[in-house]
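Problem 12. The chain below contains 224 residues. Write out its predicted structure in C-alpha cell notation.
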Amino acid sequence: MNRSADPASTPPSVAADPAGLATRVHRLLTGRARVLIGIAGAPGAGKSTFAQQLGLACGPDAVLVGMDGFHLAQVVLDGLGLTAIKGAPETFDAEGYLALLERLARPVAGSPVYAPEFRRAIEEPIAGAITVPPTARIVITEGNYLLLDDPPWDRVRTLLTETWFLNTGESLRIDQLVRRHMEFGRSPDAARQRAVQGSDGSNADVVLASRLRADLLLEPGWSG
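Solution.
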C-alpha cells in the first residue's frame, strides 16, 4: 500500500491481533510470490515479540528478519565515535539492510538468503544467523526506522508490501524498555535514565514522528 506521509491523514487503526493480521497477510499473498511485512515502532514497543507472534500465526511459510542485525559492531562504533548514541539511525548499516530487502523482495529459486541477527546478550550482530529459504512466502521484518523519510531509510518502505506501526502507549513502552535494560544488567535508575532521557528517548522521538507513514497503526487492546 505504501501510504504517502500526508500530515493531514492518519493511518487506519486496527487491533494488534496476530491471528487477524495473519489473515490480512495471506490475502496480500494473492498474485505474489512473496510478501514483506514491516513492523515499525519506538524502542520498547514490543516489536520483536509481536513479530514473532505474527510469524507463528502466519505459519511455516513465514520467516522473521530483524533490522537490528544491521547494528554496527561495537568496535566500529568505537572507531567512529558513535558509542554514546548507539541505536540512532547512523549506527546501523542502512545500505546493507536495503540490499538484503532487495534480495528478499526477489526470491531466486534454489538460492537461500542468509541474514544477520542481533544478540542482546552480547550486544553484537551475528552474520548469517538467519536462513530465508527461497520457498518462504512471507518475510516479516521489524525495527525502529522502517518509516523514516531521510535517505537512505526512505527507500525501505518502497521494498515492503506493507509497513505497520506498533502504537504502544508511552507509559507501557517505557516500562517495558526499563525492564529490558534491567534484565541486561543496568540498575533501575540507569535503566530509566537511558529509556527516558538517554539515547533511547531521543531515538523514540524520531521514530514516533514517522508513524503517519504507516499503512496501519496497530493498537494493543484496541476494540474498534
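Discussion. Strands lie at 13-15, 35-40, 62-64, 113-119, 124-132, 138-143, 162-166, 216-219. Students who got a different answer should revisit the alignment rule from Section 12.3.
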